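Batch job 17 of 40 flagged for manual review because the log was empty.
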Amino acid sequence: MVISVHNDDPAELVRLLADPARASIVQALATGPACTCHLVADLGLNQPNVSNHLRALRHAGLVKAEPYGRYTYYHLDADALDAAAAHLADLATQARANADARRECP
């Protein structure tokens, strides 16, 4: 299943990374560009599964594809990761600021 997200919504990127396979792919790509065959071998996932997850990550703007000879190499877009990290940092700031702000029950 491919999740459609808008790359201008960091919360959607966070939800996208909640999938363990996608999180593993992102972790693997953090060490450098890789093609599908590398990800299949390194992560123990099957090729269609990796391809579907890469499509979702590309659609979200988190991963970019670069043709190289007969292969396509994938790499992370650091700016998209920064946007997601900034979103999480903002949530943490809000949580700290409102930690004692209990609402009354009706």
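Reviewer: the log was empty due to a logging misconfiguration, but the result itself is present. The radius of gyration is 17 Å. Unflagging and moving on to job 18.
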